[in-house]
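This part of the workshop introduces the protein records we will be handling. A record pairs a protein's sequence with a compact description of its fold. Comparing a sequence with its tokens is the quickest way to learn the format. To make this concrete, we reproduce a full record directly below:
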Amino acid sequence: MSASNHPLPILQRETCVFSRSMEFFTEKELTPQIGFKKSAWPVALPKELLDNSLDAWECAGIPPYLTVALQDDKLIVTDNGPGLPLAVLEQSLNYSIRVSDKTGYIRPSRGQQDNALKTLWTAPFVATGEGRMAAFKAIPTYRREKLRTDLDAVASREIESPTDLYDVIVPDPPWPMQKIERDARENQVALDYPVMQEGEMSALSIPADDNCHVWLWTTHKFLPMAFRLLAAWEIKYVCTFVWNKSGGFQPFGLPQYNDEFYLYARKGTPQFVDTKEFNTNFVAARGKHRERPEAFYDTVRRVTAGRRLDMFSRRISKASPDGGKKRHERLLGVTQ
């Protein structure tokens, strides 16, 4: 039988794709990253910590102070350097990229790994099969300490109260809520702003003119308190605007809270300038925590006139005369 009746088999190669994370999460791959066998990791990794401290002192130009504490299950190295930026810590947990401030420099023999943080996080887990949570709790701990420092700085600042009276006010008070920290979301830490208790909010002086529209933002949990605040401020409740959003918090055994509320109230007899397509229910996408939908503010600007104030808001409105940078209370825009 001729060879033409029996074609030669064609070799077909399949392309294999592997995650770069495997370079850090197995002993075989992690060993060349560290440059030492596993038996030497307890020496090599602390050396990297000390090297990083030396680099930080050189950059900061300060006299070094360092302590090393050896405990049964951990080694703690602390120094008086400036600390690592949060962005660098977060990038150190992204195993698809290399993060280093040393790669492009000629330097002494210290800090040669170039990715020491990545190996520090994973080596305990690779060596013992334990320690994963300790690595991923590093960033929340860092954030929590930084947050505490920032809140102390905010608390020490003198509060700037409005000096004018306004025709439209949208209070977005810092309700006394508490963010739940869960192991399933290690990066989620406490609220990054000071909250107020009901007594403090009730005592606020609302800078409302004789005829003033008020939209008080609240959630399911604080609806009863919101009505009490309106009574304390002597502002008459009229109706409730409902913001339907995509998703939301769902308590165990209860429906999902996929809406929030603006209680519309008024002082005196303010008038709307436009009531076309002016509905109490609107749909808008969710943003960051305490970020209210721009569609709501567009409606407020369309249906009202006069001086407007957005109290306690964290947003910077494009209509703000000062860009929202100087005052905690930010203007929604002023109609002359």
Notes: Residues 22-136 form one domain. The chain has two domains: 22-136, 166-311. The mean pLDDT is 75.
